[in-house]
Amino acid sequence: MTLVSVSFLIFLAAAVLVYYLTPQKGQWIVLLLASLVFYWLCSKGFLIFLLLFAGIIYVFARSFETGKKKLLVLLEVAILIVLLIVLKYAGWFGDGFVRFLSTISFQKPLSFVAPLGISYVLLTGIGYSVDVFRGTVTAEKNFLKVLSFLSFFPAITQGPINRFSDLSGQLMEGHRFSYEALVFGIQRMLWGFVKKLVIAGRLNVVMLELTGSWQGSKYSGAYVVLTVAICSLNIFMDFSGCMDIVIGAAEIFGIRLPENFDHPYLARSMPEFWRKWHITLGEWLRDYVMFSFTMSAPAKKMNKSLKGKVGRKTAAALVSIIGVLFVWLVFGLWHGISGTFLLAAAYYALLIIGGIVIEEPVKRFRSKYPQFTESKGFQIFRTVRTYFLGIPGAYLMLMPQVKSGLQFLATIFTRPAAQFVVKITEGEGAGTFLLGLDIYDFTVLILSLILWLVVTTLHRKKDVRIRLSNIHIVPRWAILLAVVIAVVLFGFYGDLNAGSFIYQGY
Amino acid sequence: MKKLGKAVLFCLILAVLLAFLNRILMPDTTFQADTEKIGDEVDYMVVGTSNVFYCVNPTVIWNEAGYTGYDLSLEQAPLIITYYQLKAELKKVKPETVFLDCAAFEYNYGIASMNQLALDKMPLSMDKLRLIKALGEDDKDHHIAEENKYSKINYLLPLHKFHDRWKEIFGGTLKSRYHEKYENTFAGYVATKDHFVYQNPHKWLPTMEEFGASFETNITDLNREYFEKIQALCAEHDVELILIKTPSKGWLLETHKNMKQFAEEEGLEFLDMNEETVIEALAIDEQVDFCDSSSHFNIYGTEKISRYLAEWMQTHQDYADKRVQGTGTNAYWNFLYADYLAFKNAED
Amino acid sequence: MREKVLAILKEVNEEIPEYEGEGLLEDGIIASLDVIEIVSALEDEFGIVIAARNITKENFATVDSICALVESLQ
Question: What is the C-alpha to C-alpha distance for residues A255 and A94, in angstroms, rounded to an integer?
Fold first, then answer.
C-alpha cells in the first residue's frame, strides 16, 4: 500500500471516520492503532522492528533521567544505527539471514525490502532522545505515546521528520471534526497526486529515456544538461508531492506537520537552498549533528586556541567546516552506504564550504558595490546560479553507479554537439515519441508543468485553497472536479511499478 | 449539515463522471455466445482456454449433427476463472455435458491482463469478489505472478487499469467494442483465416526429450482444488463432465499420461485428440490448418476438429438431433451457420 | 547588558541589528557559522557556558531572546 494507491485512500477514509466518531480523549489511541495497522499492511511482520526501535528509544529516553547520560546517548545511537544497517543491508549477512528476515516479514525472499520508513523512525527517534538528553523535552512515561509519536502513519513512509515537542501534543490533545480541515486536507492531497502521478510519473519516463534506464544512454552533450535538470525536477515533484499528500492527510486529523519544502528553486544561496529543500532533514542535521559538534567542549577549545592564531572569523570558519563535513557525512550515509550518496554529499559539502571560504571577500565586495549587489538583476543571477549549482546534486543522488554516472556527465564535454536539437523519432508501433513520451503524454507534461507554475506562483502570495473557497460554488466545483478527473485519467498508476516513491528507498 | 449535503452531492457528481469514464474507456472484448438467443436448450458447453475458441466451431457441429452448444473460454484462462465463469453460466443454462479443456491445467493464476477481460464481463456479485480474492492469493507453491497480486483494484475498478486509454480518444483509435482478434465470432468460437506453419519437426504427443523443453507436467494442488470445485458444481447441476484436449503439438506424452491417470482416478471420460488414432482421423494438414501456434487453428483446422467432435458426440452421447425435432431456436442456429459460411467464403 | 550583546551581534553580522522578524536562526540571518562566533564571544564576555541545548530557534529568534538566554545562564 503506497500513499498513491486506492487502498490508501480507503484506509485513510476509514481511519478518519473512526477517529472523529471516537471521543477526543481516545483519539490518539485510534491514530496509534491506525498507524500500526498501516504498518502491518505495508510491511507485515516487520512491525516487530518498528516496535523494537520504539522500545529502545523509549527505554533509553527514560534512562536519561538518571546516570551517565552522555555514554547512554552514544550507546543508543550506536545500537539504532547498527540495527538499521543490519536491516537495510541484510544481503551482506548472507542468504540465510535474508531468509530469516523473510520468514519474519511473511514475504518471499525475492521481494525483500527493508522495513518501511525505518530510516525516518531512526531520525525521529534520535531527535527525541537528544531532546530528552538536552533537557528540552521531558521523557514520556507512557510507551504507547512514544510509539504513537514515532509511528504516526502519514509521516512514517518518507517524513517529514517530526519533533516530539511539535507533534506529540497535537497527537494527544484530540480534535473536533472540522469540515474546513477535511476539505483543505483533501485539496492538499489532491495537489500532491497531481505532482506525483501526473508530473513526476512522466518526468520519470523522460529521465529513464535520457539515461537509458541508467544502463547506458544514447544521448549526450546538451541532453546531459537536460537530464540533470530533469532528475532534480523529478525528485522535487516526487518528494514534495508526497509531502503534500502526507501533510494533507495529517491535516484531516487536525494535525499540522512541519513543511518540508518552501520554494527551494527560488533560493539565492546554497545554505538558503537547504533551508527550503527537505527542510526537516536540514534542521535535524543542524540541531543534532552540527550543533552537537560545534557546541562540544573539544570544538570550543579548538575555536579558542585558533582564535589567537588566525583571528576570530577564520577560527569560526575552520570549526564550522569540520562541522559541515560531519553533517554531510551523516547526510550521505543516511541515504545509503554507497559511493553515489557520498559523492552527492561531498558535492554539497564542497559548495557549502566554498561559500564559507568566500564569505568574507563577498561581504567586502557587497559593501563596496551596494547598488550593484542589491539590484534585482543580481538577485536573479544569484537564484539562477544557485539553481544550476544545486541541481547536479540530485543527479548524483539518483545515479545508481558512480563510474557510469560520471561517464554520462562527461559526455557534456566529450560529445557536446552529438545531439543538440530535440529530435522527434518514430517509436515502435504507433505514435510519435518525444523523450520517451508519446505526443499526448508530452502535451500533458508541458500543460501540467504550466499549471504547477501558475498555482505555485498564486500560492506564494495567498493559499490557493483560501482563494478557491472565496469563489462561487459552480466554478469552484468545476475546477475541483476537473483536477480529480485529470488525476484519474492522466495519472501514472495502475501498473506494477508505478506509485513507488524515490524517497521511500532511503 | 448543509455542508455535509453539499459534500455528498459533490461525491455523487464525481461518481457519475467516473462511471461514465469507466463505461467509455473499458474495452469491450465480448466474443462470448449470445445465451439469450441460444436459449436454454443446450446439449454441451466447451469451457477453458484459447484452445477452445480456436478449435471448436459450434455451428459446424450443428450442421453435422444438429446438436446445440457453445464455447465459454478465455485466453490462458486458469481453472479459477473457468470455475467462476461456469458457475455463473450454469445459473442461466443447463447443458447435458461440459467439456473441460485440459490446457487450463497448464495455468495457475493466469495472466492479469487476460483475467481482466473475463472479470470486466462479470457484474458485481459475491462470486466476483470471491474470484478477485482468489486470484490475488498466493498458494504455498508461489505460482502467483506478481502482477496478479497487484491487480485486485484493476479487477474491481476497470478504470484504474484502462484510464490511459484517453489517448485513444484523441488519437481516434478507441475501439470500444471488439478486440480486432475477436471480430468474427460464432457462439463463442473465434474464426480466423490466419496461417501459421509449425517449424519443430517432432511427431504428435512427443516426449519431453523429443520436444526439447521441460515443463511441469503434474497437476498442481491449486488446480486440483479448483477442478474439484468444478466437479462438484457439475454434479450439483446434474451435468456430465468430460475432459477434452484439443490437438496441440506442444502437448507432451508425459502430460497426456498424467491426465489419463487423473481422469481414471476421478472416473471421468477423457477425450485426447492428440492420440494417434484421432490425429489420423482428423487428417490435419500442418502446412495449412494452424492459425498462430500449433494449438490454435484457423477455419480449415477447426472444421476438421469440430466435425470429428460431432461424430464423437453421435457415438458417445445421446443428444437429440434438433434439426429433426424442430425447436424454436433452429432458425437462430441456421442463421449462425449461414453467417459462418458467409465469413468463410468471403473474398478477403 | 543589551548594548554589549548588540555590539557582539553587530560585529559578527551587520544584518542582525537591522532584522525585524522573529526568526534569526530560522530565516538564516544567523548561519551555523555565526553561531560559533556569537557563542564564543558571549561566553568570553559574560563568563557563561552555552550548550547545544541552548541553540534553539526560540532562543535565537530575536536580539531580545538572545539577551534573555544570556541572562538566564548568568
Answer: 43
The type of residue at A444 is V
User: Closest Cα partner for C64 from C19, C11, C13?
Assistant: C19
Q: Is the pLDDT of residue A164 over 90?
A: yes
Q: How far apart are CA B266 and CA B264, in angstroms?
A: 5
Chain C contact set for A313 (CB, 8 A): 37
Question: What is the amino acid identity at position B215?
Answer: F
pLDDT band at B137 (very low <50, low <70, confident <90, very high): confident
pLDDT-derived band at A465, boundaries 50, 70, 90: very high
Q: Which tens digit of pLDDT belongs to each residue from B26-51?
A: 776 667 788 888 887 899 999 999 99
Q: How far is B216 from chain A (nearest CA, A)?
A: 21
What is the chain A residue with the closest CA to C51? A295
Q: Domain holding B293: CATH number?
A: 3.40.50.1110
| Percent of chain B predicted with pLDDT > 70 | 95
Cα–Cα dist A74/A288, whole Å: 12
d(CA A431, CA B122): 33
Domain locations along chain A? 6-177, 180-257+433-505
Please answer whether residues A39 and A151 qualify as being in contact, where contact means their C-beta atoms are separated by less than 8 angstroms: yes
In the numeric block, the cell 483465416 is attached to: B193
- Give the gap in angstroms from C-alpha A58 to the nearest C-alpha of chain C: 20
* Structure confidence at residue B180 (pLDDT): 62
First-residue to last-residue Cα distance in chain A: 17
Tell me if residue B77 falls in helix, strand or coil: coil
CATH label, C2-73, candidates 3.30.360.10, 3.90.1150.10, 3.40.640.10, 1.10.1200.10: 1.10.1200.10
User: Where residue B177 falls among pLDDT bands split at 50, 70, 90?
Assistant: very low
| Torsions phi, psi for A433 (to 5 deg) | -115, 140
Q: HSE (CB half, 13 Å, CA atoms) of A154?
A: 29
Q: Are B93 and B72 in contact (CB under 8 A)?
A: no
**φ, ψ (nearest 5 deg) of residue B199:** -90, -25
Cell triple for A213: 534506464
Of A6, A179, A481, the CB nearest to B13: A481
- Indicate whether B285 belongs to any domain: yes
Nearest-angstrom CA–CA distance, A476 and A480: 6
For residues B188-211, give the mean pLDDT.
Answer: 87
